[in-house]
Amino acid sequence: MTSTSHRHHPAGIPVPADRAPAPQPRLRQSLRSRLAPHAHRYERISPTVLRVCIGLIFCWFGVLKFFPGASAAEDFAIGAMTELTLGLIPAPVCLLLLAVLETGIGLALLTGILLRWALAAFFLHMAGVLLSLFVLPDAAWHAAAVPTLEGQYVVKNIVLVAACLHIAADELTP
């Protein structure tokens, strides 16, 4: 036999009790209370997770620069560094310096060794990377606020800067 107890739908239509939806606020609160301990645990390790992830990215992209032609951003990076150094450093040396710098930053982020130095190098490197949007405008922009693929490659670094600000804040907080 079916149950005869009914709840009413907002439109006044009776709904069997076994098919009535659970109240939303209670469900949301229950889900939030179940996830809160996990979120709290993650909050404590999030700087480490960010540090390792960015370290992997920097190692990966840095190592690619040791092999001429392997990095999709190679020509743009060399062009920007050549402009920023007023052409005083030859292109192959620029590429090698970028490879060493990015790989070194990546290894330091991965291991946590010399982390403060790596973060300082990271922020200086990002300043140069973001300057490339201005020193190579024809390569970085189709039009105002419409970046080329290379420009998009550079603009996305804003997220890395924000993540490393979180890592730096964690590193500098007792």
Whole-number mean pLDDT: 88
Main sheet? 2 strands, antiparallel
Radius of gyration using CA atoms only? 26 Å
Cα(first) to Cα(last) distance is: 66 Å
Instruction: Give the helix/strand class.
Output: mainly alpha
In words, what does this structure look like?
This protein has 174 residues and is mainly alpha-helical. The chain has 7 helices and 4 strands. Helix 2 packs across helix 4. The longest helix has 41 residues, at 24-64. The chain is globular, with a radius of gyration of 26 Å. The mean pLDDT is 88.
Short description:
The protein has 174 residues and is mostly helical. It has helices at 24-64, 74-84, 91-111, 115-135, 137-140, 149-155, 157-172, and strands at 6-8, 14-16, 141-143, 146-147.
Q: Can you lay out the helices and strands and say which pair or pack?
A:
Blueprint: E1 6-8, E2 14-16, H1 24-64, H2 74-84, H3 91-111, H4 115-135, H5 137-140, E3 141-143, E4 146-147, H6 149-155, H7 157-172
Antiparallel strand pairs: 1-2, 3-4
